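Appendix B. Chain record.
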Amino acid sequence: MKGVIFTSRNKDNKEIPEFKQRKISFLSESPILEIDKFNRFVLEGVPGELSRFYITVNERKNDTTVRSLQHYLLDHPDYPMTKIESKATSLAMSPENAATHKWLFDFDSKSGIDNFISDLVKAGFKEREIEVFKTVHNYSIVVPHGFDTRDLMKKYDCVELKRDGLICFAWNTTEGR
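Structure tokens predicted for this chain:
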């Protein structure tokens, strides 16, 4: 299972009158099949609003998430049952409940991506292990595990490392922009 977030952020919608930031998050066994739900989320926005569809880069552990939820509920016996799904999602998305340990690099430049991928190959990754995703403005690059990134990060000032990041899977704008 993976975590899914649909969001419309202030950062993307500064010029939209009457915009209010929105966000929903949940867990899914097949997150890419949630596109219809995302499209409904988009339609609920104000005209011109940009919304994003994020998926956790790492699978989440069901067993440790269940235990975390059980402990939380024991410690908070008055917790409202109507909020259980959001609490389970929040706990599942915590780093300790990641089942895989992929790393995501947020590449914020229109050029140099090929050089960055070449440097990842030089760092020991096979090209087939490196996943590149187009984002709203640039790219996300995912590698299957961690490594010593000190030299790589010194070379690229347009890259941010996210050890348990979110892939921007899709984005859409309501009519009127």
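Further analysis of this model is presented in Appendix C.
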